[in-house]
Specification:
Subcellular location: Cytoplasm
Helix content: 25-40%
CATH superfamily of the largest domain: P-loop containing nucleotide triphosphate hydrolases
Domain CP-type G: 103-261
GO molecular function: GTP binding; GTPase activity; metal ion binding; rRNA binding
Number of strands: 15
Strand content: 15-25%
Distance between the termini: 81 Å
Bound molecules: guanosine-5'-triphosphate, zinc ion
Structural class: alpha/beta
Keywords: Cytoplasm, GTP-binding, Hydrolase, Metal-binding, Nucleotide-binding, Ribosome biogenesis, RNA-binding, rRNA-binding, Zinc
CATH topology of the largest domain: Rossmann fold
Largest sheet: 6 strands, mixed
Strand order of the largest sheet: 10-9-8-11-15-14
Binding site for Zn(2+): 284, 289, 291, 297
Number of domains: 3
CATH architecture of the largest domain: 3-Layer(aba) Sandwich
CATH class of the largest domain: Alpha Beta
Number of helices: 11
């Protein structure tokens, strides 16, 4: 027997996946760096974002680095141990962002480097086509594969009807139905929850996102609430565990606050969800046709002939209007910021000159 070789056992354990791969390290990221650079600055993934810093995990690394506005949960950094703030942010595979809530019209980075977004809805009052379309447009725009998950199938006797409506949104989006409180989630979501993949559950409150996360991790439903931990001073602090590494090797990115979802700069994503209408619009007589009764409107003609559902057209127009509005607000803010920056620069120059 060679040195280091283990005697054969009847059931050899499955080879453990390296920790970095379990964290979601993929060829896409490795290609951006070199062996030498990796040795010097090991890759770490941002698993939590706090005002005071970013929690990063890597191979044998679990630490906090200074906060930075250009990084979000799911990002990969090449950790500079001597000067953590100088760590290099790797190019992203995907990025979910939204217009920040409230009056400030800034973009908020929500999650980076997701592979799959499970857009979760239950089959009751929560089921809302417009909301599903918005989430799917957002996923498409971000470069993430969306999958519609309809929960509470056990409480519903016309599930086929919901599936039909959800399936009509886009041919490119798979639809899964399940009872999140049973053992179904693992098997039904397995095609997307492969080792090394990063997934997230998006959707309104109460649709079953936490129940699904727990089901995948094999935890009890009792752990649905945020985990309470004692800090150094013995106080209870609520910690949102934002990346859960599941036993199967997949990572679940658990991001709170994706409820007040507004689209911005998501024109491509919207066009992808409504590709049928987008193609029709290209045939309208006027380039800038709003499909509001203009002559030669191919979209209206399709609605009149029954080829396109009038409700779907209305939802498309609403989503486009929302996206245009938010995009314009963002552009305006950026130019204001730029103007302000210029002013500060000139003031500084003047000060220097006048001295
Ligand atoms: N019967 C049944 N109940 C479910 C199912 N999915 C979730 N529930 C229940 O619905 C309630 C809400 O589920 P959660 O998993 O907490 O929902 P959530 O989306 O995480 O909600 P927030 O944390 O508020 O965003 C819980 O009482 C779950 O047990 C399901 O498929 N069937
Ligand atoms: Zn038209």
């Amino acid at each position: 027997m060679m040195r280091g070789e283990q005697p054969a056992s009847p059931e050899p354990p499955a080879p453990a996946m390296p920790f970095l791969q379990r964290l979601g390290w993929q060829a896409f990221f490795a290609q951006q760096t070199s062996i030498d650079e990796l040795a010097e600055t090991p890759p770490v993934r941002v698993t939590e974002v706090h005002r005071s810093g970013l929690r990063v995990l890597g191979d044998g690394i679990d630490m906090s680095v200074p906060p930075r506005s250009d990084a979000t949960v799911g990002d990969w950094l090449l950790l500079d141990r001597t000067l953590p703030s100088a760590s290099r942010l790797l190019e992203r595979k995907s990025l979910i962002k939204r217009r920040a809530a409230g009056r400030e019209s800034a973009v908020q980075l929500i999650a980076a480097n997701l592979d799959t977004a499970f857009v979760v809805t239950s089959c009751n009052a929560d089921f809302n086509l417009a909301r599903l379309e918005r989430y799917i447009a957002l996923a498409f725009e971000a470069g993430v594969t969306p999958v519609i998950v309809i929960t509470k199938a056990d409480l519903c006797d016309d599930i086929a009807d919901y599936v039909a409506r959800a399936s009509a949104i886009s041919e490119e989006v798979a639809v899964v139905t399940l009872n999140a409180r049973s053992d179904e989630p693992r098997a039904k979501l397995a095609p997307w929850c492969k080792p090394g993949q990063t997934v997230a559950f998006l959707g309104s409150s109460g649709v079953g996102k936490s129940t699904l996360t727990n089901a995948l991790s094999g935890r009890e439903a009792a752990a649905t609430q945020a985990i309470r931990e004692d800090d150094a001073k013995g106080r209870h602090t609520t910690s949102h565990r934002q990346i859960h590494l599941l036993p199967d090797g997949c990572a679940v990115l658990d991001t709170p606050g994706v409820r007040e979802l507004q689209l911005a700069e998501a024109e491509t994503g919207v066009a992808e969800v409504f590709s049928d209408l987008d193609e029709l619009a290209a045939q309208c007589r006027f380039n800038d046709c709003r499909h509001e009764g203009e002559p030669g409107c191919a979209v209206r003609a399709a609605v009149d002939s029954g080829e396109v559902d009038a409700g779907r057209l209305a939802r498309w127009q609403k989503l486009l209007a929302e996206d245009r509005h938010n995009t314009a607000t963002l552009a305006e803010r950026r130019s204001k910021d730029k103007a302000f920056g210029k002013m500060v620069k000139q003031a500084k120059k003047r000060k220097f000159r006048d001295r």
